[in-house]
Amino acid sequence: MAKGAKAPKGKKITFNVAKNCIKITFDGKKRLDLSKMGITTFPKCILRLNDVDELDLSRNMIRKIPDSISKFQNLRWLDLHSNYIDKLPESIGQMTSLLFLNVSNNKLTTNGLPVELNQLKNIRTVNLGLNHLDSVPTTLGALKELHEVGLNDNLLNSIPVSISKLPKLKKLNTKRNPFPKPDESNTFIDSIKRLENLYLVEEKDLCPACLKKCQCARDKLNKIKNTALMTPRKAIFSNLVSPNFMAKESQEEWR
């Protein structure tokens, strides 16, 4: 925006408008969907609807999220992607019911991420992609329930070890960052490989009959696995010498 230019006038959201935007999700949760409505400022009237489970303010022109957002104590899902937010409020740490937080495609810098994020002990997914982060707060390493972290398209040179070693982490997107080495991103992905076999009980805790049953089932699975590895797969496209490189790279985008 040019210096001295007026900020665009956004759509005014009234309480009745917001109330009519509440939808019931397939699993019975209440979602307040105010996405793609040309909103430029956080509508204070929605604080009266703070019993909703999900809040979608994505794809607007919001620049600031107020501390009062912490009044959404039941919120499990918060989507703020594709706005102009450069800082998250410290009070976000009080929203301990959050499971999903998407703030991708904003103007966030590392200084705009409050330390209080480490209080979101139940959170499963955090998307910080497409921002201006030059480092990752080590406080994210305290979020032991994290399954997915998006850090793509930032200004990162490294990833804290505490992030790649999160016990439940399954997906870590670090693509398109200026890492010192081209293969650095793959190194982080390799570091979160999980155990192939998961044992929920120990042998000593099983009676002889149950132990024998489990061992037989395991032997059967291993036999099937070994047979599959030994059987060569017939090529479906025998004339295709090399795959389309661009198609291979952009599969996820196509989906």
Name the helix and strand elements from N-terminus to C-terminus, one letter apiece: HEEEEEEEHEHHHH
- How far apart are the first and last residues' alpha carbons, in Å? 34 Å
Global mean pLDDT:
81
Radius of gyration (CA) equals 23 Å
Q: What general outline do the C-alpha atoms trace?
A: globular
Low-confidence segments, given as residue ranges, are 193-202, 233-255
Percentage of residues in DSSP E strands: 5-15%
Tell me how many strands there are.
8
**Class derived from helix and strand content:** alpha/beta
* Helix content percent band: 10-25%
The quaternary organization reads as single chain
Q: Number of helical segments? A: 6
Order the strands across the largest sheet as they lie in space. Answer: 1-2-3-4-5-6-7-8
Could you describe the largest sheet, including whether it forms a barrel?
8 strands, mixed
Keywords:
255 residues; alpha/beta; eight-stranded mixed beta sheet; 10% strand
Structure, explained:
By secondary structure, this protein is an alpha/beta fold. 19% of the residues lie in helices and 10% in strands. The protein has 6 helices and 8 strands; from the N terminus they run αβββββββαβαααα. Strands 1-2-3-4-5-6-7-8 form an 8-stranded mixed sheet. Helix 2 (161-164) links the parallel strand 7 (148-150) and strand 8.
